[in-house]
Amino acid sequence: MTQIKTPILLYFYRNVQTLFLATAQVAEGNFDVHPIALGNDDIGALTDSFVDMKDKIIGFMEEMKEKARLESELKVAHLVQHSFFPKHAVIKENYSFDGHYMPASECSGDWWGFFEQGSKTTIIVCDATGHGVPAALITAAAHSCISTLKIESENQYVSPKSVLERL
Question: Which long-range contacts (CB under 8 A, 24 or more apart) does 117-122 make?
Answer without folding.
Answer: 117/153, 117/154, 117/155, 117/156, 117/157, 117/158, 118/155, 118/156, 118/157, 120/157, 121/90, 121/92, 122/158, 122/160, 122/163
